Amino acid sequence: MSATASLAPAPAIPPAERRTMPLSGLRGAIARNMTQGWQVPRVAHEVDVDLSRVEALRAERAAAGEKLSVNAFVLRAVALALRAHPRLNALMREKEVELVEDINLGVAVALDDGLMVPVIRNADAKRVAELADETRRLAEGARSGALTGGAYQRGTFTVTNLGAAGIDRFSPIINPPQVAILGVGRTAMRAIVRDGAIVAAPIVTLTLVFDHRAVDGQPAALFLGEIARRLEHAEFD
Predict the structure, then answer these.
(1) Rounded CA gap, 99 and 89, in Å?
(2) Which of 196, 181, 164, 184 is nearest to 51 (CA)?
(3) How far is CA 220 from CA 44, 77, 172, in A?
(4) Is 222 part of a structural domain of the chain?
(5) What is the CATH number of the domain that holds 149?
(6) Is 146 helix (H, G, I), strand (E, B) or coil?
(7) Full domain range(s) for residue 74
(8) Which residues lie closer than 8 Å to 187 by C-beta, 6 or more apart?
(9) N or C: which end of the chain has fewer CB within 10 A?
């Protein structure tokens, strides 16, 4: 008998168990919203920002017992910049762009099974410490399910931060019907040139994604530039 003939047939391999995740509930709502946002004719602008003065302020406040995140300073800079650039604080309607007077910042909060965006209303009227406190309160409420539906409504601009996840830069999807969103990466020490010398500085990358139907590249660039300037010069008034 040949060696080939003596081989027994290989045992059948059972099919792998099929696992699925239904697009229903929160996941389904996210899928529908992101599909709508992806269809927007969007453009991204990006800028690296030196946070040396912000970090100095954070250290000063920490010494006084006040813990403030970088994101709170970003929110303050965004809210103030939106005052001067109202075309970014707007909603896309069927045949028009609605410019909104109130500056209501959505803050993306990651959950185990999705993403929620509670809203800080009248954000331009709140100081950095107030924005930090409200961001913490909204994040805790979103994760515990304690927020009511009204906490997620009437947003006019969204800020999403992946710095804690170690992401340097990313281009987020616009949260419709808003016309723009700001992505915030991690703050990392990088080599830069300052006064002709190479020094290490805390740098964060900001990415503005905007709906080109509502906003052109130049006004969007001016808006992002003002955010960067306020952060680099610690101008929060």
Answers:
(1) 6
(2) 184
(3) 9, 15, 16
(4) yes
(5) 3.30.559.10
(6) coil
(7) 42-233
(8) 51, 55, 70, 163, 202, 203, 204
(9) N
% pLDDT > 90, the chain: 79
Give the pLDDT band (50/70/90) at residue 21.
confident
Q: How many CB atoms lie within 10 A of CB 204?
A: 25
pTM of the model as a whole: 0.89
Catalytic, out of 45, 85, 212, 233:
212
Extract the tokens encoding 149: 């539906």
Tell whether 32 is covered by a domain: no
Mean pLDDT of 1-22: 68
CA-based nearest residue to 183, from 158, 201, 164, 165: 158
Longest alpha-carbon distance in the chain: 92
210-234 per-residue burial string, b: 16 or more CB within 10 A, e: under 16: bbeebbeeeebeebbebbbebbeeb
Residue 1 has pLDDT above 70, yes or no: no
Known catalytic membership, residue 212: yes
Q: How many domains would you assign to the chain?
A: 1
